[in-house]
Amino acid sequence: MESETSSYPASAQTGLAGLRVVAFESRMAAEVARMLEARGASATIAPAMREVPLEDNRSALEAADRLLAGEFDVVILLTGVGVRAMFQVMETRHPRPALVAAISRAVTVARGPKPAKALRDLGVEPTVVARDPSTWRELLADLTAKVKLEGKTVAVQEYGVPNRDLLAGLEARAAKITTIPVYRWTLPTDRAPLKAALQAIARGEADVAIFTSASQVANVMQVAEAEGIGDEVRRGFAAMAVGSVGPVCSEELRSHSIEPDFEPAHPKLGHLIKEAAERSREILARKRAAGGIVVQTAEPIPHRAPLAETEPHSPRWDHPMLKACRREPTPYTPIWLMRQAGRYMPEYRRIRDKHGFLEMCSNPEIAAEVTTFAVQRLGVDAAIIFADILLPLVPMGVGLHYEKGDGPLIDRPVRSVADLERIPPVDVGELGFVGEAIRMVHSALGGKTPVIGFAGAPFTLASYLIEGGASRQYQATKTLMYTQPETWHRLMETLVRVTADYLNMQADAGADLVQLFDSWVGSLGPDDYRRFVLPHTAALIAAIKPGIPVIHFGTITGNLLTEMRAAGGDVIGLDWRVDLAEAWARLGYDVAVQGNLDPIVLFADIPEIRARARVILDKAGGRPGHIFNLGHGILPETPVEHAIALVDAVHEMSARTASR
Predict the structure, then answer these.
(1) What is the per-residue pLDDT across 594-615, written as a single tens digit (0 to 9) for each?
(2) Which DSSP symbol is given to 628?
């Protein structure tokens, strides 16, 4: 068999030689072209943005006046070039020393090293530098750890499009916000090069794509959709090596169902192109080799019988929650909330202050208590048993424990066949406390409310086992997948057996349905999912007792929805990054869906929460088979009253819709 690179000339076996590379850079277009061509690439530069300076920047001048008057408690700086541009405008009215002295009196927050350096060049030491990967989430978390924002006046230096998520997070914490726009981005005046590049990508006539900002991604997909080739462009990117300059850009790519294949260690253009030269050929070879492969085994993918063809497992078979799982009409849209028993509730915090996390999970009385009061307080349509996705790792003897601030840690990671062989035979009877808690919840709730059992999916459990804890890049996990595929598949088979036994134990104890959490599978592209995950997740779902509805949920999985559907599940859970109507159409209406309100919406005021809930209900269109939920778990600072208001709104508005 010829190798994947045999069609290239001998001189093209390394770097970017012979590869067709599309870059969407504007400001540094000529420099990018030179760097790519120096590495032998056939470079197409398709500018996706036009930078429009705000020369008559009244907002920045007014902000300067307010800064000098001491009106800003916090100043957030998002980009280094934006900091310098902002000061250039402000210095047209005020001397630099006065501005520097004024900003030094405020809490200054730099979103990463570039704005931090720009501040230091001005003689200002930033109060807070957001930790890596310095997205709006890390910035907001680091800031709120330092300052209580309620009532504070916060100035946000913007560069390009507004960061609406950051602004919403600040507003949710009752901050008073002033934005200081420095530049704005728009589409290029001449869009012909961009349109031509997108057509080539849609036809499969490109090998590598390079993105250097989130705004580029948004503009590229805006033009692709306007040209009517959005889906074709996504498929084209799926067959290419896609490079992203950093986490913010990657997040934007994933929001458009495009999975980035690589990021540089340092978020700089030169590092990105170097990474492209070093990794693109291997990525393309792997994608092409896996192109027609769905599984590595000759065995067919197993599937369970449809719920409608099975005997009722639960005495609550006709509850709206279970009817929705079967896609049967319900009097209203059922709703429950992931992490509905959690730190946002004062009752939970009082118990948590007295007990360790694993202690709470393993004490049936405590687990049942926190499960029950969440249902009673919120009025939701299901109780999810208080436990943790990693509990099946406890009897595997890998040293699972929880450290405050670090989350779950594994003392003895599994990174070789020898590590795998040290795992003893697993008896899920050691986790019988979960089953006992389920029985106690049914008793406390009078047997009227369905109880959800759950577990982590095989890939997510494997990633914890291999990494030794949480990870951002999943380097050890993917390295083991690629270099030790036999060990990987053996590990996944072990996890499937243990997890199936664990979920069936929960079903025997009275769980009416189960949810599979694949929290980290969004780190994979479709080819790797099909090859390394799909057959194992399918085997697990097929092994769950007949008549038990299965909700299959993952995060950042907009690019994996059809693959997850193929793996199985009566309900596919959607995170907030996808459009529910579009996702359900892609999945097919022969499967139910769950979701997908952004958890941050619960920080908005109640009229806004109701309006956002209405939008999601409208996207579901009253179609049987929709379970309302958040697109991820409730955040710790969420006001309890807002969660209750959401539940009430969904019940009220969906019942009114159903009665028309």
Answers:
(1) 999 999 999 999 999 999 999 9
(2) B
